[in-house]
Each structure stands twice: as C-alpha cells, then as structure tokens.
Amino acid sequence: MNTSSRLLANWVILGLTLTFLIGPFLIIILAGASDTSYLAFPPEGLTLKWYLKVFTVESFRASFLLSMALAVFGTLAALLLGVPAAYALNRYALPGAETIRTIVAAPIIVPGIIVGLALLRYLVVPTGVTVTLALFMAHTALVLPYAVRVVSSSMHNLRADMEEAAVLLGCSRLQAFTKVVLPNIRGGVLAAFILGFVTSFNQVPVSLFLSGPGVRTLPIDMLAYMEITFDPSVAALSALLAFMSLAIVFVAERLLGFSRYV
Amino acid sequence: MSDTFVQLSDVTLMYGKSVAVPDLDLSIREGELICLLGPSGCGKTTTMRAIAGLLDPASGSIHIDGRDVTRVPANKRGIGLVFQSYALFPHLNAFENVAFGLRLQKLPEAEIRERTEAGLATVGLTGYDKRKPAEMSGGQQQRLALARSLVMKPKVLLLDEPLSNLDARLRLEMRTELQRVQKETGVTMVFVTHDQAEALALADRIVLMKEGKIEQLGTPADLYARPETAFAAEFMGFENIFRVEGTKAVTDSGALELGFAPASPLLAWRPDGVSVGSGPHQGRVLATSFAGAHREYVLDTALGPVKADAAIELPEVAIGETLSFDLPEATARPLSA
Amino acid sequence: MFRNTREGLALALPAAIFSTLLFLVPVGILLSEAFRFEGGWSLQGYIDFFATPLNRTVFLRTLKLGALVAGTAAVIGYAAAFCIVNLEPKSRGTVFGMIVLPLMISPVARTYAWIVILGRTGIVNETITGLGLSDTPLRLLFTETAVFLGLLQLFLPLMIISLVSAMENIPRDVIPAARVLGASWLAVFFKVILPLTKEGLVIGGTLVFTGSLTAYITPAILGGSKVLMLETLLYQRVNVSNDFVSASVIAMILIVMSFSANLLLKKIASARS
Lengths: 262, 337, 273
Known about the structure:
The complex is a heterotrimer of chains A (262), B (337) and C (273). With 262 residues, chain A is mainly alpha-helical. Chain A has helices at residues 3-31, 49-56, 58-91, 97-109, 112-127, 131-155, 160-168, 173-202, 205-209, 218-228, 233-256.
C-alpha cells in the first residue's frame, strides 16, 4: 500500500469509529429539536420547545438540584476524607496500609446497584436514616476511591524532605502541609473533584434503590420519565447534560491538563 | 571545653526497632566545619537528623549554644539543613523559596526583600529571583538551597551530601564555594558525606563513623596520616593492610618476612609507601595502569594482591612479569586491632 | 518525622472506617442472605436460583453479551488504536480526546440515543419503511442486538485507550523490521503486534467485560423486561417480587466476577512494575 491510500484507510477507520461513538450525540441533539410530540429522526420541523420544556418540568428541576448537591457535597466530603488518607498512605509507613488501600478502593469493585440495595435494606430501613442522607453517604463512598487515587498519584512525586525543609524553616506540620504540600497537589485535588463530580452526577445504579417520594437523582428521574412519556424532552435533556459534561471537561483540560489524571 | 557549641551526650537513635546510633558523644565547636564521614548506613545522616530535630533521640541529650534542645521541635531549633535533593519548593520562584522562612517570621516586607536579595547575592544568584527551581541547573538549585537556609541565620547549618548530585567539575567548584560562604558567614557547619576526598578538602575536623559509632575523630591531616584502625586506614587510602606475627606480615594466603618486629597487631601501607623496583620480595604483575605522576601496579605476592605505586621514571613492567618490592618500616602505619 | 504511626492512622482511618461501615458491612450482610436458610446456613438459595430456567438464561446471556461486547471491542479497538498511533502527534491528541470524551457523558444520555436510532420511528425503521423494504416497522428495541450495540458504544473507548497505550510502547522500528524480513500484514499482527500488546488487550478486555456485566442503564433502557441481564434481573427481583435471596445470589455473582477481574488487573500491573 502506498502512503496516501494508507492514510486514507486510516481516516476511514477512525471516521467510522468516531461516528459510532459520537454520532449518537448529534442524533439526540437534533431529535430533541423535532417539532413532534414523539421521538423522530430525522426531526420533522425544528423547534426549541423541548429544550425549553426541560426547564419547566418540576421533577427535573428538583432532581437536577438534588444531583448537583450530591455531586458537589458528596465529592467535597470524599476529598475531606480522601486527601488526608492519600497523604497518610504516601507519607507514613503504616501498619496495614495495604488493607486500608483495599478497603478504600472497594467501592470501585462492588457494582453500584448492590451498594444501593444494601444501604437501603441495612441502613435506611433499620436506622430510619433519610434517603437523602443515605444517597449523600453512598455518593461520598463512591467518589472516595477516585479521590484517594488521583490525589495519591499527584502526591507521589512530592518528596517528604520538602516538608522537612519547610519545618526547619519554621513551619508547623500543618503549615508545612498548607504551604508546601497543598499548593503542589492543587491540580490533583481539582482533577479529583471534577472526576468525582462527573462520576457522581452520572451515577445511576447506586441511586436506583435509594429514591423516595420527591427524592430522585436526575438520571433516575429521566429513566422514570421515559417509561411514561415518549416526547423528545428526554432527548433534549440528554443533549443538555452532554453539553454540560463536555464543558466541564473542556474547561478542566484547558486549566490543568485534566486528562493526565484520569 | 569552653568553646563547645553543639553537644550530643549519650545520644541513642533508633530506626524503627533497631538501634542506628548507640550512646553517641560528640561536641562541635562554634564556627567550625565538621564532617561526618562514613559509608552508607554508618549513622551519619541519622545523627544529623537528630541535631536538626527531625528525629527524636531515644535517650541522651542535645545542647546547642548552651541550651538543652532535646525536646525542642525542629521548627523552633533555628537550624538550617541543605538536603541531598535540595528539597526546593517547586511552586515558588527562587526569591520566594529564599523568603519562605522570613515570611513565616512575619518580618516587614522591606526587610524580607533586603535579606532575600542579600542571600541570593551571597550564593551568586542575583537576577535569578523569578526562576522556578525546575528552570535552574543542578548547581544553581544547590546554591538556592544554601541561600534559603543561610538567610535564616541558623545557629548551625547542616548539609546532607549536598554535592553528590553534581557532576565532578561542579562539585569541585561548590567545595570552594562552601568554604568561602562559611568563612564569610562564620556559621557552624556539619557536613555529611561518604566521600573522603571531600571531607579531607573541606573539613576543619572529621568524624569518621562506623556502625553508629565514632571510629576516629581528628583533623584531616591527622586522619590522613595517622588512622588508628583498619577501617579508618582503609577509608584514608591505606590499601595494603596485613596482620603481624613476630617479624612477619601475614594474610590468609601466606606470609612475608618484614625484617623488623612491629609492636602493633596490624600494619598498613599506602600504595605509594610500597617501594618498587628493588627489594627482597617478588611479585607477579596482575594489572598496571598509568596515573600521570606514577604508575599503579597490582602485584600477586605471597600475601595475595599488593597495590604499589612506582615512580614514572622506572621502566614499565608488563603483566605477567615479576617485579621486586619492599614493605619498608618507614612508611608502615601501625594500627590497633 | 513521619514515623508517628498514630498520627498517620488518624489521617487514614476515617476514610477506611467510612468505607467499611457504608460499604463492606451492608454489602457483606446482603451477600450472607443467600446462605441463610430456615435459621441455619446452606447453599439452598444458590440451588434454587439456578434451578429456575429464566435465571439460568439471564446468567448465560449476561456472560455471552459481556464476551461478545469485549470481543467486538477488541477487533474494532485494534483497528482504531493502530490508526491513532499512526497519526501525527497533533491530530493524535485530538482524536484521542474525542474517543475519551464520551466516557464523561451521562450513560443515560449515551444510551438514550439508541432509542432514537432503533425506535419504531427511529432512523433505521424510517429508512426501511421509506425504501419500502417492509410495511411495518421492525422491532429493534428490546432485543439483544440493541443491548449489544448500547454496551459496545458505552465501553469501546476503554478498549481503545488500553490498546493505544499498549501500542505506544511498541518500539518504533519493530513493525517495519518485520515487514522487511518478509512478514505479511497478517503475520505482523499475529507475530508482532498481538504479543506486544497482549497486556493492553487483557486490561481493556477486562474493563469492557466487567463494565458490560455490571451495567444497569443500557439493559434497562434497550433490553427492558424482554432482554433481562443480571443487573436488571436483580432490580426486578427486588422491586417486583421482594426476593432478596435471588438478589443476594446475583450480587455474589457480580462481585466475584468483578473482583477476580480486578485481581487479574492487579497481577498484570505488578508483573509489569
């Protein structure tokens, strides 16, 4: 094969792959703009009414806020637990460090649906903890492994003697952490936050069983809505969510080369 | 001793469950440059970390400038430490690295600026303020680390193998640089190294350590000329060390008549202390190499291999041929067992 | 300075305790349910579960689809990864980014697109009826094919990423060298590329396989109750028939598979380092 035909074959294969991976998004963007009361593609007439309707559906608004709050506060809580853990696992020769690592990583290995069910049955039902609190804790635990992993990898290159140097220059241990460690792992912490946020926001299986009257995360709400109505608003909402994720990732990539942490 | 500035008394240092340094006594004088010398694992870095306060002694006490600092935390001791890796702060530029400690003391901005700039000037880094450590060469990073410690006006400046990450030429340059800085500032320096040439060149006094204990302490000239033990002799370049039995030098391979009766249990010769070309003994040349001012031979003798330097005027003897040599009494160094 | 174990534990333990209480304990109790029978311990729950034909079908279907998705992803993945590695650095980054991006998008959104494509009024059916190939729309949704396509789209990026990073480690001149020595492209693939990227293939394959096994949304939306998979079966058992023993058995199956896959990955990772 000569060079130019090889190049052509190259791009044909990549074009097909990318069409398969990304094409569907273009389709839902257009399907959400169809001026029909049912899903149609190609769209019959273009309208923005479904995109606007998304914002007026009361349950979408409520579940969007819940998902947002879970993603933000769940991830913050996970960082609050995860950053000190990552720090300690990197710095100290702890007895049972491997066990701690495994326990903290466990939520990645256990399928989410099982976690949701287990929490519902053995936490919410017996202790009367609210579903919202259970959701919050489940999402925190879900994001925790990512927080520990990403922060650990950014702490890995940070030598311990840098903190010792700071202490010898007059820092307390805490000051050495805030003035020397934190500024140097800021990128990792931010990346962990974004990764955690996206993971939590998109999460379905964990939240599946953890829903109650008026308490539903957005993806679950969308699933429920789809069972009743077949209008293009879910397509419109899917498209909007895709844009949101893309925007977050794009900004993160521009700001800190996010992809090297994923 | 009235001029003792740093005093370690009966200091025992543990490394986990094992004793790294047992019952160490050491006094360091004000303004001197003292070298802790020894192979890796001899306890020299551990001792230095204890002086800095990064490692708490299991027992014993440490006094600095007349004050008991054994329980004083590292950030309150007023000690500077230049790390082997420099441990510069990668997120701060050169100026902020040097100003770091001064800022913690909440000094007025003008004073911080003045002292930082003076500090950078001392190590020849004027004009580099805005550079990040990653944008500086190894030698510059080394100077920056030195300046960062010096601006704090430490009572004692500790240096942990600070030259080991530099190439040979830079290392020589930094040696003189360190001596100059020490003269200018008069700061007491404790220098940790495993390189005896570095210790000999720099130190006012050398503390030779082995397995957590002080093997010998003295001036470079002292240590160089008069090592007291086999370990010290080997470290100072006495490459031929033999046991003594009556008038014979003995090794596991055999014996050689010396022609005199030493009083010490061991004798050592530097390669240049072995006379070559004439003498009562014969050795087969195992290896030879040209070293500028002299020629180095390894001879296979009754005692096993003997290292000897020959004057360059002597004709070269090829590998496999024999060479006569002597182990003269005049150049022999008696050692204790 | 960092020898104070108590200090280190104080920092690390909160995370570990949190995970234990919120994860290990509840999940552990759930797993134990299938072993409890009439007040004692037994394997009856497992025997009953596998005695039901539907459960066996779902179990085998989940394995089959997982394997099919992983296998197809490997074939497409090799082709795509090979093309990506051959790109010049600048466009390589862009294409790689476009492949990774879908991973950040909500799986609900990603799966929903297939309804638009495969639905009664979707593109495929519109085309078929439009061309007069069939009078009535075909039933494309709620089939194994639909689930297969959805899962493939969801997890293909993981395979491509693994293979790209494996291929980047192939020394530059190995492939031309093999060609010069007279190897056909087929021989180059089986004798050079495949052995050198085996690790990436195993990693990608494991990620795709376990991902497919434990996906909920795709089988729920595209398979419905007609094409149940283990996760959707679990949901149905709990929500429709309150059958926690079956749920516990399914949970065990999923965890064992996911766990062994992770062990495999860890082993590869440690063998490499």
